[in-house]
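Holo prediction. Input below; ligand is zinc ion.
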Amino acid sequence: MKNVQQLFWQNYCRCCNQVISEDDKHFCSDCWSQIGFCFVDSFCRRCGREISPFGQLPQGCAGCLNENFHFDSIACAGVYKPPLSSLIVRFKFADRTHLLPVLADFARNAVYKADFFQSADYIVPVPQHWRRRFQRGFNQSALIAKSLRLGDARFNTDVVKIRHTKDQTALTFAARKRNLRGAFAVRKGHNFKGKNVCLVDDVKTTGATLDECAKVLKDVGAGKVFAFVLAVAGQKE
Ligand SMILES: [Zn+2]
Ligand SMILES: [Zn+2]
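Structure of the complex:
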């Protein structure tokens, strides 16, 4: 016998909005198969791009041989293409309430594959400037970071964004690096010295933001800095 709540409860696909059965989680089977193509089984531990299990070289992959990062290792759930990319965009701009549980599930299922799973002391979201947070009302990276479990690592917000930066969408890695210089800092009384930190962001595009945050952490004496993102963009199809 269904209870009253279940009678009125309509479960719908978070992707295409059609009604799905109570037993389906988040998506209809069509959308599950589409989103399955976005998840990666093997990725470059240096840049996060999807690569074949044999594509990992000691210095990275073919895609990142000429890139330099301050973070030591990265893990991701998938590649930034539809429908995962549209879910992330909707999460940020339209429907946080319904999409956070979906994306948090993706993140939790993926983070076990990270080689730093047991090594982090702190989980730190990539911060937003207060002006952006005021506009949007929340920091999407913090919501994802809070939902993660990484061994005994604790959630920490002692990396802050102290300068508002212009939109980076059209900028190259070098231009993004210039745009971000001096934009991040750590709070007074931080405890990062000698500690391993896992930075969390929704999307890695060029990696400039993660790189700048990692640099700030290394500058104050952090040990290893790792990164976890939901999706990596810039994947060659
Ligand atoms: Zn669907
Ligand atoms: Zn790589």
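The longest helix spans residues 96-111. That is the main takeaway for now.
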